[in-house]
Amino acid sequence: MKCDPNLYRAAPPSLAVKPRLIRHLFLPPLIIILMVGLGYAGFLISEHFGIRSLSENGQRQLELNARAVESEISKYTYLPSLLELETSVPQLLADPTPEHRQTVNEYLEGLNRRSRSRAIYVMDTTGRVMATSNWRDVDSYLGEDLSFRAYFQNAVRGQPGRFYGIGSTNGEPGYYLAHGLEEQGKIIGVAVVKVRLEAMEERWQRARLEAFVSDENGIIILSSDPARRLKSVIPLSDETKEKLARSLQYYWFPLNELQPLARETLSEGVEKLTFPANSEVQSDEDDISYLAQTRPLSDTPWNFTLLTPLQDLRREAINQGILVAVAFALVAFLLIAWNERRKVIATRLAAREALQEANNQLERRITERTSDLRASNERLKGQIRERRQAEETLRRAQDELVQAGKLAAIGQMSTSIAHELNQPLAALRTLSGNTVRFLERGQLDVASTNLKTINELIDRMGRITASLRSFARRGDDKGQASLGKASRGCAATARCPSGKCALAAAPRIRRCPGADRPDAP
After folding, report:
1. Nearest-angstrom CA–CA distance, 436 and 517
2. How confident is the model at residue 6 (pLDDT cuts 50, 70, 90)?
3. Contact yes or no for 422/494 (Cβ under 8 A)
């Protein structure tokens, strides 16, 4: 059986090869771009929510530390006004004798020791120091003219003096609280308490808290990082710088500006600041960002600023962005793998369907060819049956012809057969008659011989009839045959006086030459 060669011929190249090539060329860059974009978006979102969380936590910490600063400042506000209750102070201002000065010095020294302030002193209305708690020190304030100080000027006018500055005597920074001493509604002097606030800076450093306090000029007066102290957080004009230089509020310090590389306002009082790597604040690290939360301090023109580093938040946001990018890459890889797997499965299913279809077509062709072969086989069987019937009919006709020939031969041999039978019968009649006479005569030997001869003749006649019966039998008759008997019968039948008589199976029978003689046996 031959198969159709077009059935299994390879399909022509698909037109989808070029789109697949384009997809393979542009899909990896697209995935990389999406991965970077999603990673950056994840970084921004994580940073946004992280800053919000830090802002909420920092707000509580800002309030707590701002109240601590306010408490530290406010606990000294009563001291200047307390001096009005001491009678020796007005006496000194009214009569500045050495005895009164010594009495007030000793009183101020004890009060300063008990209050743990830096210094307490009393000035007259001209700004000269009349008595001080540090009268024993070499750099004592006694006798100095401090009328140029803003806190003195405010206190003389009856206003509370609040001032942060650097001492002109020893260059020591401090917070000054001034109060105008009144007598009968008139300012007779000024009481000043100098407080050192470095203890708060030490507490911030121990707590690893980054914070600073800026005054009304924007100058950092307290800071957990000493490098930030006496730096301006806002730009200072030339006029302001000249005014501060004349007042010697910050002595002769340069008052450099602490300007960040980037400033982003997130909400009121909340900013995102980035300082350079080569700044004096962070000289050994990369650019660092802070979340700056600012709150004004009550009863002062100062502001408290809490700085929360964003390095950990930025690293966490970067990790989140990387995680998002890796997750997207993994999902993209799984989708691509799933798509390729789907294509492989679809290809296998299509190949299996094509193979199944080809198999079905082959089976249909085999079934059709088998049906054709079966029909051809049936036709051949019919022809074989017809030929067998014809051969059977021919064989029967041949048998009939052979039988007819045999009967015709028997008809032709009837004369010879009658001669062959008549001769033994005549001999039997003669021998039987002679045997009777020989018996009457008592010649038993001759009678016995004649009887034997009679038996032989009878046997001969039986063989002749048996041969004729066998010759006349049909060819399809079945039965047992003895080859020895047949040969002996032929030999007995063929005997004749001349030795030339023979009974053939042919249609024609020859007569014995001596069969007509009367003395023949």
Report:
1. 23
2. low
3. no
Q: Is the pLDDT of residue 482 over 80?
A: no
**What is the rounded average pLDDT of the residues 18-41?**
79
Compute CA distances 145 → 130, 149, 193, 250, whole Å: 10, 9, 16, 17
SS3 label, residue 518: coil
Q: Which residues contact 212 (CB under 8 A, 6 or more apart)?
A: 220, 222, 223, 224, 225, 228, 229, 305, 307
Mean pLDDT of the 194-209 span: 85
Distance CA 455, CA 451 (A): 6
CA-based Rg of the chain, rounded to a whole angstrom?
Answer: 76
Burial (CB < 10 A; 0-12, 13-18, 19+), residue 434, is middle
Better pLDDT: 412 or 101 = 101
The confidence band for 20, taking pLDDT boundaries of 50, 70 and 90, is low
DSSP 10: P
Judged by DSSP in three states, 291 sits in strand
- Is there a contact between 518 and 512 (Cβ–Cβ < 8 Å)? no
Residue 482 CB neighbours (<10 A): 9
pLDDT above 70 for 130: yes
Q: Looking at the DSSP assignment, which residues form a beta bridge with residue 306?
A: 211, 293
Q: In what order do the strands lie in the sheet with 288-296?
A: 220-223, 210-214, 303-309, 288-296, 270-275, 262-267
Alpha-carbon distance 301 to 175, whole Å? 13
Q: What is the DSSP letter of 253?
A: -
For residues 47 and 313, the answer to whether their CB atoms sit within 8 Å is yes
What pLDDT score does 72 carry?
81
pLDDT tier at 502, thresholds 50, 70, 90:
very low
Confidence (pLDDT) at 1: 47
- In this predicted structure, the answer to whether residue 479 has a pLDDT above a threshold of 50 is yes
In the block, residue with structure tokens 């009856």:
158
pLDDT attached to residue 301: 82
CA-CA-CA-CA torsion sign (13, 14, 17, 20): negative
> How much is the pTM?
0.55
The structure tokens 């200072």 sit at 236
- Average pLDDT, stretch 378-400? 87
Region of 214 please: left (phi>0), alpha (psi -120 to 50) or beta: beta
Residue with tokens 């009649």: 429
Spatial separation of the C-alpha atoms in residues 165 and 152, rounded to whole Å = 13
CATH 3.30.450.20 for the 69-311 domain, yes or no: yes
Q: Domain boundaries in the chain?
A: 69-311
